[in-house]
Amino acid sequence: MSTTQTLPERTRILVVGAGFAGLGTAIKLDEAGRTDFVVVDKGDTVGGTWRDNTYPGAACDVPSQLYSFSFAPNPNWSRSFSPQPEIHAYLQDVAQRAGVLDRFFFGTSVEDAVWDETDQTWTVTTTAGTVVADVVISGSGGLSEPKNPEIKGIEGFTGEIFHTARWNHEVDLTGKRVAVIGTGASAIQVIPEIAKQVAHLDVYQRTAPWVMPRHDRSYTAIERLGFKLVPGLQKLYRTAIYWGRETYVPAFTWQPKILAPVQAIAEGNIKKGISDPELRAKVTPDFQMGCKRILISNTYYPALAQDNVEVITDGIAEITPTGIVTRDGVARDIDVLIVATGFYTTDQPIAHHIKGREGRTLGDVWAEHGMASYKGTTTSGFPNLFQIVGANTGLGHSSMVFIIESQIAYILSALEQMEAGGITAVEPTLAAQEAWTEDMQRRMKRTVWSTGGCASWYLDEHGRNTTLWPRTTFAFRGLLRNFDLDKYEVTTRTTGTTDDKELVA
């Protein structure tokens, strides 16, 4: 890989991140005949989220057939829901076969990106040097920076402490007293695994999640052979799963009552895994299904029912050097503290390192009114900046890879039109961005995410859902099929030395 190479001082396109978004962008740029790009990533290989999250039990909760590039099907999935090592290996294999790794620079973090209005370029400072780029494509994602809880005394804890996304594999949990803070997607995968080996496990639950049975299975040898040898078989599986998932959309966005039978199944999952009425009551959510992320597991509830596991719902008052004290005054000593409190999703860290036209960071702009971009991809005041998995692009029912590929196609269309029209810079008009954002928030009002009676990580500090896409995924793809230049402020370079800025009607 390119770790021994020197980052170029100049490039046409700089891609940030080497997960699904960054890798997919690099491959599609290369397929389009564009070699004038580089990809930088803080890690040591491709993979992004699936490289960094190596905690016990890490796996995807989207079916394997959907959680892969449409242009790179994987006939070797072992299960219907893929474990983390297989997804990471898949991304490494795709990158290797695509032949694009010579333009990847690993161990390289972006420190600042500043728009130069005079030169119509981005000056990007990284830990490996400074590079000037015409276009910056951010694929850093919303699940890249772990979010630690702000709890009194946490800095003074003297035992081992780490976030699930930064798992410390050198710590042996065997026979230890362990606490897990959080009961989200990562926690419900971790808890059943570590409950098998620890002496005692305290699970600190602020809000109980709805957990559905995980209909996971191993693919048979015949199926895997068919994926390799029968043309169209794997595509048939993918298509069937895709459309099956799309049937969930009305329940989330239009009529949450449709989820009542699904909620009954989740309640049955609790009863099946837990016999104690008091514990059942503790882990039964008090909000409508779908309001928060729906999780899937067959082992979570049985793990909570183990004799060496305690579910604690009293709020945490403080963390002492040796343990945790809850608001009722009870102190529980522990050896290891595992934080499973998610990521900065509505306040993406890279936004604080990108300075646009007026010298303000993207983070500053979003802090005022919430994360907002046009089509989740471009932002007024930040020319030639494209973001993959931006505002209101997240999903609660299907694969983010579908969204990512849709955004990549939109960006490639933009690059084609820029070159064809002699355009040096594009940014969405403020009117177009505001109209898009208003439509998003209008559609959000009747969704279960807004009406279900919960406070989720989907919502920002203003109480707005700036995370999820409130429509079907095929609607998103249709809206991003072609770059709509008429919604953009455009700068063209004339044959002279001046720049002509025009607002395309």
UniProtKB/TrEMBL annotation:
InterPro entries: FAD-bind_Monooxygenase_sf, FAD/NAD-bd_sf. SUPFAM superfamilies: FAD/NAD(P)-binding domain (SSF51905). Pfam families: Pyr_redox_3 (PF13738). It comes from the Bacteria. This is NAD(P)/FAD-dependent oxidoreductase.
